[in-house]
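Exercise (ungraded).
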Amino acid sequence: MLSNQKSTINHQKSIYSVLSKDNGSCARRGELRLAHGTVQTPVFMPVGTQATVKTLSCEEVESLGYEIILANTYHLFLRPGIDLLEAAGGLHRFMSWNRCILTDSGGYQVFSLSNRRQVKEEGVTFASHVDGTRHLLTPENVAASQMRMGVDIAMCLDECPPYPVSEAMARDMMDRTLRWAKRCQAEMGRLRDGEKGRRGEGGGVVSLSPSLPVSLSTRLFPIVQGGTYPALRKESAQRTVEMDFPGYAVGGLSVGEPREILGEMVEASVSALPFEKPRYLMGVGKPQDILEAVERGVDMFDCVLPTRNGRNGQALTWDGPRNIRNNQSRQEDGPLDSACSCSTCQRYSVQYLSHLFRAGEFLGLRLVSLHNLAFMVDFINQIRKSIEESRFVEFKKRFLERYIDSKEQRA
Amino acid sequence: MLSNQKSTINHQKSIYSVLSKDNGSCARRGELRLAHGTVQTPVFMPVGTQATVKTLSCEEVESLGYEIILANTYHLFLRPGIDLLEAAGGLHRFMSWNRCILTDSGGYQVFSLSNRRQVKEEGVTFASHVDGTRHLLTPENVAASQMRMGVDIAMCLDECPPYPVSEAMARDMMDRTLRWAKRCQAEMGRLRDGEKGRRGEGGGVVSLSPSLPVSLSTRLFPIVQGGTYPALRKESAQRTVEMDFPGYAVGGLSVGEPREILGEMVEASVSALPFEKPRYLMGVGKPQDILEAVERGVDMFDCVLPTRNGRNGQALTWDGPRNIRNNQSRQEDGPLDSACSCSTCQRYSVQYLSHLFRAGEFLGLRLVSLHNLAFMVDFINQIRKSIEESRFVEFKKRFLERYIDSKEQRA
């Protein structure tokens, strides 16, 4: 019971339990106990980058049944700023979302959004995409920022390799990501213990307000990297696990590599992760990819796909994605998906949605985003049920037959 | 009982009743009985130009308590087209709004949006702002289009003078508007009686589908014009009333003329309208202007102001409009208006709304548009109550003291 011992050492109760397991695969049904509630897994987390799930209200995201959403430290650090969020009573209170929040550390955004960035061992300096001002993200200020926002799950700062990347470079980035994870963990421990709880770190970019305590309930997840090299992925996972965290993320996938290798990379990463801790595959959200990862024992997902595609007029259905901007949709009297019970499908026809998109009306973006998030809820609920009934592999097969085949027929 | 006789001749029941009258002014509380429900007056109608009240769902507009909205024949004629709307079962079914709809005829839009237009006695030819194609609006096809959409209140095609305009030109336009009103009325009568119900008029632009009946419940309102000339306004009203319609609109105001003359123009127009018919002041929606017009006996209003200003970050409050994009709003923890019970004010802070606007997030547009329409409901409800209690003039005075004075203090 090595991991239990370590949990005790870290003064942290386990946040995760496996409730049931599929027999034919590594898929598991579990629950995640966080400060703002219990989250059923597998779980898909809608992305609320800038403290809003784009076009939707918190009421809507709640009523769809979501128990956790994702926000982004990089974006919130720049706007409205961590000081303001802390003074507002934390991110939950600021955006009026009372369920769980996971924040990405900002590492991925610095690498993908900021063109003027410089990585040193201390951290990453970058120019803001908002106003060009220069900032420094360090493992320490990223940990502190997320605790000051009071989020339920914080992510360590990582260095995300591009695709393609050489093995040597992937190894260097993996090593740095491991060192940074250790520093994030140490900083969070220090803040939590109150030893250095009221002073700033990380080049003075973040200075903790003396009057406001950091969150004591924030849980820190590290990120397994290793590019597209299975041996590195495994090593990254093993060395990360040695540090003992309450949960583990797998990063650096869905960054342009061939889809076929996703399963292999997930497997190499997950194989070295402890069974009794939650596993989170970052940025993955295509239904077919979620199925590959659930099959290999992944519990948590996030992706902009349902909302971004919704804003582009692409609706998710059991028969595959459909484009409501095409000509066929102009005179279609029925709902997007007759099997769907979301408020969009209950009230509005495809031809009306098609009109809203053609006329450039915001309501169209809302209604299809909402439908897509409702689809993801249904999809994940079906996954959970199939695991409980130990028929996940069969569910996956049937889903893909309908989802992928219908899509190809239509294309 | 002249008007009752005429109603009988026209086979139309009266659609309007005055329920109570203010003693100190011409303000009246009434109700409007239309095919899709009863509408309490005075009433403010949110504008849903393209079959959507911008950014808001029908559920939201309903739950705010609105009983009637406005849509636009010009825009819907171009996109999605009257044939499609008719095939969809009418505008109500198309947009899933089951309460009342009034459509503007499109006259104003042709004059203000279309740069290549040509007015002849037959009608107006214009180039579509969507795709440049040329179209013809005639009194006949405008009437037919609105009946085919199945709206509750249709407007006659009118010629809206610009500001400033010479008296001679204002008279010419008034005369044409009167001739066109007669043609609209005649066409609607013909369609209603079924005598020529299944054939097209107006240059072949509209061809009625043989299989689909036009609405028998659409009520037609003519538009009083006359520019800024009180004598013309009065003459326009008198000659329009001679044709006997179920209600009357006053148009051509709020087009750039000095605000001070609004009251005079409304008074000149309304003075010649029958007491027992509803009066609609088109395009007017500033609270202070609504008060001027209600005082003179106007019952119905529409304006893009609450939603357009909402999308620009201007919120309506009892202390005057406020700009949530200003610096002060960035750290304001409370709601937009502590007296407001709308879902925006119940849940979201000014600083969050401010963040949404700064970050370019759609949700901000929604939340402030919704608040502004909630404000208009509260405002109109207070007007109704003050009329019922015969203290409208006092209400108006108190409202303006707070609304205008606070605004000036803040500016």
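Further reading is listed at the end of the chapter. For now, observe: Residues 1-11, 195-208 of chain B have pLDDT under 50 and may be disordered. Chain B has two domains: 2-303, 310-410.
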